[in-house]
Amino acid sequence: MLRGFYTATAGMISQQRRMEMMSNNLSNANTPGYKADQGSLRSFPDMLLQRMEQASGTNTFSPMSNPNDPVRLSTGVYLQETKPKHTQGDLRPTGNDTDLAILNQNLPENASVYFTVEQVDGTPRYTRNGNFSIDSEGYLTTNSGLYVLDENENRIQIRSRSMFVQQDGTILEGDIRNTRLGIALANNPDELVREGNGLYRTAENVPLLQNAVGEPGVNYSISQGHIERSNVDTAQAMSDMTAAYRAFEANQKVIQAYDMSMQKAANEIGRIN
């Protein structure tokens, strides 16, 4: 009976973690470039049980079962590692020249592209949030103050009031070419490590391939005056939260039933008349 406590408790913990994951997704539904987390439930390895009496030749199994077959017992469920869903979000027009969005057009399967920014320690970070601005020194920065980098991993400084960004990421000031945005290609974005503020990094801070638009099968475009919305499906997230809450309640009732049975066993079965 104690195994039932552990199994139901594992179910409650996994559903609680699902609720936390989906709550975080909903809270970032309006964050530009945010990628919704997704996770799946997996069962712990089954436990194999076998009667000790078999060693002495005694068969206490049911006649309907094979005494030589071990019995499988599930030991609970857990929420596997959560990973972002790197699908394209909708583009929303803002009219701001410093707002940029990446539109995926033709990329390798499961691949994604990102803006390159400079972390405080000088290492590169990657983001889909193109809600940029120009600081007091004329540098293009993120909303958290990190410098946006060009294709040579240099900071981008805008010296005039007019800035035009072409679809390939080339930045023009009037008719003069300034530089080109550093757009990084991740062939397997699931290997990226998520940080706060919509930032990603590689496991060992190894820079990703820059400006792979010329590579076979790689095509994207930059849309100025737009930002990419999050890819959170709010209706689906609310439905999943309701299902997780009901599953949590079901496991809670199982624990209550086990508790009543344990109480009855302790107070009544062992009573001496």
Task: Write up what this structure looks like.
It is a single chain. This protein is of the alpha+beta class and 273 residues long. It folds into two domains: 2-63 and 74-84 and 233-269, no CATH class; 91-228, no CATH class. It contains two helices and 22 strands. The protein has helices spanning 2-27, 234-269; strands at residues 37-38, 41-43, 47-49, 71-73, 77-79, 83-84, 91-93, 100-106, 112-118, 124-127, 133-134, 140-141, 147-148, 164-165, 170-173, 176-180, 183-186, 193-194, 199-201, 209-210, 219-224, 226-228. Strands 9, 10, 13, 17, 18, 19 and 20 form a seven-stranded antiparallel β-sheet that branches. It has a three-stranded antiparallel β-sheet with strand order 14-15-16, with no helix packed on it. The longest helix is centred in the C-terminal third of the chain and has 36 residues, at 234-269. It is found in: Bacterial flagellum basal body.
Provide a short characterization of the protein structure.
The chain has 273 residues and is of the alpha+beta class. The protein contains two helices and 22 strands. Helix 1 runs antiparallel to helix 2 (234-269).
